[in-house]
Amino acid sequence: MEQGATGHAPVLLGEVLEALAVRVDGRYLDATLGRGGHAAAILERLGEEGKLLAVDRDPEAIRAGERRFVGDHRVSIVRGNFAAVGDIAREAGFGAGFDGALVDLGVSSPQLDDATRGFSFLRDGPLDMRMDPDSGESAADWLARASEDDITRVLRDYGEERHARRIARAIVRARAEAPIDTTARLAALIATAMPGRPEPGKHPATRSFQAIRIHVNQELAALDAVLEQLVELLRPGGRLCVISFHSLEDRRVKRFIRRHSEVAEPWRGLPEIPVHARPRLHRVGKAIRAGDAEVAANPRARSAVLRVAEKVAA
Ligand SMILES: C[S@@+](CC[C@H](N)C(=O)[O-])C[C@H]1O[C@@H](n2cnc3c(N)ncnc32)[C@H](O)[C@@H]1O
Q: CATH code at 144?
């Protein structure tokens, strides 16, 4: 699907809908509302009695969602971090759990396209990168105070950047002369610090920008938190769909599903398995990727990986 009027094309839409197998009277969670592409498709399948809780930490996503779904009594839109999904669900009246949940990770196209949000090395703007501009520290503030070792660790661990130390050293040197407070200055500084020729088709700052964004938004910690809470919040037979956009996320999702779908140690192989050690989830199929036609229409879909699990009846 192309970006269309909302500015964001939902990825793997058909695959998500098939995996969620929406029941007309079910209760669903979209933990990452974005521009509401997945949410709208879920609502199309829900009947009058169905309900959808849609969450996003970005105020722009919330505003767009409120406009898009105005008057639809089946939708509750909440601004918040999905790391607190348990509290959000309870406060919004979804304490009895969900028949299905979607977590579509990463940033939306409008976040990347709006230079003032500071996510993109292709558009000059203030170096912010926060999905929720009212919480936490901007990328510029963090780069102004972090030690060379901390910057190196973030670039290496979250960007898998081979030249992490070299880039961190260049940042520390450059900030002594003038603050690094625009995306263009950071991108240029990284490009200059990289040895050799750049990888074809890839901006030299790609990995570093991803790493700093993950750090600023504490994305991996939020992912771990939402997954653990969803094990509890899903009703028996309820489906969990997670779309990741890089291997750090996908590896975590894969391990999480594996850990909850196998008998816990030390009960493995024993005839009688106590309730607390029984699997909570059942893995549904293998990792799903976008087909050629979707990737051609929407390059963002190229790196998307969907994993699905089902809550096991107690
Ligand atoms: C890829 S977009 C979702 C797109 C959406 N599925 C659609 O069809 O338009 C990811 C969204 O998740 C939001 N997000 C990322 N991390 C979040 C978190 N920890 N809590 C809440 N929202 C988050 C981002 O602000 C962004 O709007």
A: 1.10.150.170
